Amino acid sequence: MDSYNKKRALSKSALKWLQTEFFGIFVFLFFAAVSKAFGAGANLMFGFTGLMTVVAVMNDFGLKEGRVARDKASLHGADVGRSFGLKMGLIAMIPAYASMAVLIISKATGAFNFMPAYKLINAMFYPLIDWAAHSPKVSDMHWWVVSLMAVLPLLYPFSCWLGFKISFDQVDVKEKIVYKNK
After folding, report:
1. Per DSSP, which regions of the chain are E strands?
2. Is the CB of residue 57 less than 8 Å from the CB of residue 24?
3. Residue 2, in any domain of the structure
């Protein structure tokens, strides 16, 4: 019996963080090139680009894995839940929350300044982080900024879950948008 390889899918989802980070570095570089000229507009424009980078990479991964899982489930009776995409997304966001834990420790203790490393580790969110916490010192950052940054990595599981569910359930998104469920 040829079943869906969940371990392979979960290990690939861990690598998707690296892919978003790679694209995030390009977002960061372009942001750095134009931030002086565009000011806060650059933060918003490239912040949105960084968010969409995460959505695009994780949704694409979810769509592809959902199709494979659906095929394995229908042809070979593999036991794959419709919400397996959420699990894959949760694996992909581990580095973001691990770096956030270190940032919180850094902020709470004041023993070291993790802010520059945090911004680099989360390069895809750099423009938004820089907009909310412009100073390179973690001591200058307000606690509300930490709560804002805690929301951003939730794009990983949401995007992956949505893509997986759409593909696994064979939802025709184009038809739903054009015909609006008529």
Report:
1. none
2. no
3. no
DSSP string computed for 140-163: G--HHHHHHHHHGGGHHHHHHHHH
Judge whether 107 lies within some domain: yes
Q: Find out whether 136 and 143 touch, Cβ atoms under 8 Å.
A: no
Give pLDDT, residue 71. Answer: 87
- Please indicate, yes or no, if residue 180 is contained in any of the structural domains: no
Long-range contacts of 21-25 (CB under 8 A, 24+ apart): 21/95, 21/121, 21/122, 21/123, 21/124, 23/53, 23/57, 23/124, 24/50, 24/53, 24/122, 24/123, 24/124, 24/125, 24/126, 25/123
Cβ(49)–Cβ(29) below 8 Å = no
Residue 84 in tokens: 């397996």
* Tokens matching residue 147: 């709560």
Domain count, the chain: 1
Instruction: Determine the Cα–Cα distance for residues 53 and 89; give it in Å rounded to an integer.
Output: 14
Is residue 69 situated within a structural domain? yes
Q: For residue range 74-124, list pLDDT tens digits in order.
A: 787 777 778 899 999 999 999 999 999 999 999 999 899 999 999 999 999
Read off the pTM: 0.87
Q: Which domain holds residue 149?
A: 7-172
